[in-house]
Amino acid sequence: MRSTRSGIGGLARLSDVALSAIFIHAGYRVASRPAGLAKKLDAFTRRYLGFEIPNSAALVRLNAAAMVAGGAALALGVWPRSAAAALALSLQPTNVVGHPFWESEGAERTSELNAFLSNMAITGGLIMVATRDLQRCGRAASGPSRWARSPGTEWEA
Asked: InterPro entries recorded for this chain (predicted)?
């Protein structure tokens, strides 16, 4: 079965919906309670950039809203490649600020590293969605074409 809207198969659509769920859920959760991540953002910018971002809670809410919107677009098949690319980009600040495993030790470091690597794996899935059509084109261009002719043969009508 193929989706008439995007031209991709049912399993690919199902994977898009599954991938989008974390962004819709986590984005909504963070947007409704941004204080924890805003506090981490303040600590991160103070430590690594030497300043605090004014109204960091609004920036956290904006990023969370982008995740909800991107997740919904991906789930609904609305510009899925663009939605996946935007989600991949919006996940990186959250990953670095939210899971600084290099600052922790012991069990906390392991937990933060697992979350960081999980987000990197999700990023890999998003990159696959964002480049889905490009992958097909690249594969077709790299292999022998069914229209290629052997040397010395003529084209048939």
From this structure: DoxX
Residue with tokens 């997740």, as numbered in its chain: 71
* DSSP string for 40-66: HHHHHHHHHTSS--TTHHHHHHHHHHH
CB 82 within 8 Å of CB 18: no
Determine contact, residues 50/80, Cβ cutoff 8 Å.
Answer: no
* Contacts (Cβ under 8 Å, ≥6 apart) of 19: 74, 84, 122, 125, 126, 129
What are the extents of the domains in the chain?
10-135
Q: Residue 8 — left, alpha, or beta (φ > 0 → left; ψ -120 to 50 → alpha)?
A: beta
